[in-house]
Amino acid sequence: MCLAQHSQIWLLCQKTQHNQPTILSRIDYGCIVYGSARPTVLRRLDTIHHSALRISSGAFRTSPVESLYVICHQLPLYLRRQKISALYFFRAQSVPRHPISQLTLPAFLHRLYAARPFHILPFCERAKMLLHDSDLNNVSVQFSDFFTFPPWEIPQFSYLNSFSGFDKSSTAPVTFQQLFHHHRYQYSSFIPIFTDGSKSDGHVGCGVVFPSDTPSYRLNNCCSVFTAELVAIFCALQEISPSSQRNFIIYTDSMSALETLSL
């Protein structure tokens, strides 16, 4: 009996997961735009959503809709639209030059919408009202400028490898030390920064060694060493980005990270 129950639960989870990308992805797509439609129009999507939940869960047609949400671990569509709208609004607020980050409704339009409540507010105003009702209007959003350069103009990345052509297994360590010292002599005017990532049982982290500081970062245990190496390089770049000094050189022992960044 217990095995049969577990099989039914597993089958329900599989069907619900199949419903997620098949139905909900199509309903969610563009909901920030079509979310301004009339509630009577939006309720037509509820019928499709409820039918998909009944098919995936095997529930009867007479089953209450609320029980379908609980069994399938799904939100009602109006709550899903609110969640997606809030996430999009927060993401827009994190980009200083985003078109809607500083968009506000003029005072005369506020009076117009107040006098005609049957008119639907623009997305920004609806999102602000949603955050106010959810007590999230005072949340501070950290700025992150993703549009430093457009995606189609990603700068080319190259790296120096003074050890290329030397086999680690057949080369004496002193040779690598001499190569490194020679490299440092060539770039003595550059400030050296060393990065490293590591993983052990139950711990994943990375560190960055600056001339005056050595910050370290704890990562999620599911992260790999490769991820830790990339995060260390990212943290180093993030620290030196606002500096007026531009002569930096970052050292890492992860060849796979360098090859990935140079793709």
TrEMBL record:
One MF annotation (Gene Ontology) recorded for this entry: nucleic acid binding
InterPro entries noted in UniProt: RNaseH-like_sf (IPR012337), RNaseH_domain (IPR002156), RNaseH_sf (IPR036397)
Residues in RNase H type-1 domain copies: 187-263
Name of the protein described by the UniProt record: RNase H type-1 domain-containing protein
Biological classification of the source: Eukaryota, Metazoa, Ecdysozoa, Arthropoda, Chelicerata
